[in-house]
TrEMBL record:
<keyword id="KW-0731">Sigma factor</keyword>
<dbReference type="InterPro" id="IPR039425">
    <property type="entry name" value="RNA_pol_sigma-70-like"/>
</dbReference>
<comment type="similarity">
    <text>Belongs to the sigma-70 factor family. ECF subfamily.</text>
</comment>
<dbReference type="InterPro" id="IPR013249">
    <property type="entry name" value="RNA_pol_sigma70_r4_t2"/>
</dbReference>
<dbReference type="InterPro" id="IPR014286">
    <property type="entry name" value="RNA_pol_sigma70_RpoE"/>
</dbReference>
<keyword id="KW-0238">DNA-binding</keyword>
<feature type="domain" description="RNA polymerase sigma factor 70 region 4 type 2">
    <location>
        <begin position="133"/>
        <end position="182"/>
    </location>
</feature>
<dbReference type="InterPro" id="IPR013324">
    <property type="entry name" value="RNA_pol_sigma_r3/r4-like"/>
</dbReference>
<dbReference type="InterPro" id="IPR000838">
    <property type="entry name" value="RNA_pol_sigma70_ECF_CS"/>
</dbReference>
<dbReference type="InterPro" id="IPR036388">
    <property type="entry name" value="WH-like_DNA-bd_sf"/>
</dbReference>
<dbReference type="InterPro" id="IPR007627">
    <property type="entry name" value="RNA_pol_sigma70_r2"/>
</dbReference>
<protein>
    <recommendedName>
        <fullName>RNA polymerase sigma factor</fullName>
    </recommendedName>
</protein>
<feature type="domain" description="RNA polymerase sigma-70 region 2">
    <location>
        <begin position="26"/>
        <end position="93"/>
    </location>
</feature>
<dbReference type="Pfam" id="PF08281">
    <property type="entry name" value="Sigma70_r4_2"/>
</dbReference>
<keyword id="KW-0804">Transcription</keyword>
<dbReference type="InterPro" id="IPR014284">
    <property type="entry name" value="RNA_pol_sigma-70_dom"/>
</dbReference>
<keyword id="KW-0805">Transcription regulation</keyword>
Amino acid sequence: MTTPTDSDRDLVARVQAGDKQAFDVLVLRYQQRLVKLITRYVRDPQEALDVAQEAFIRAYRAIPNFRGESSFYTWLYRIGVNTAKNHLVAQGRRPPDSDVDAEDAERFDINTVLRDQDTPEAVFHRDEVERTVIEAIEALPEELRTAVTLRELEGLSYQEIAQAMECPVGTVRSRIFRAREAIDKRLRQLTGEA
């Protein structure tokens, strides 16, 4: 009997043994996070839902080959990013240069309309800060970029990141600290406080 409290590894093993209901539980568990991830690449919400569905189909087809060397979500995350990039290419659009698109909905709500108090200078400065943060994240080494993305954009705990990256929690803390330091340095350069 499959229950929503089963671990990802148990559910994956059940899917690999032919239990389709176990995959439904994984879809329910990760659907919102995957759609949020894909929305960073494919801006249209309805289109992002379609791409997420395609990513889950690809994951279902590939799950017999999943060996558990990373967490299920890390594996699904990679499938989601690749599916989104492939979709953009198929549509004749250019995918982002980096797997990390820092336009985090919590920080940079793309649906925000200009308010009366937003002067052109304030809007320009905010856009410049956003661009600087994105460039700083894209310039990070892969291990730092992954750690800070999983923490700041995906909201994973240090323990979850350690499991996903298969390293000690102390290493995760160090990577996130170094990533934040690099981003802060770029922002200080922008504001002339370097």
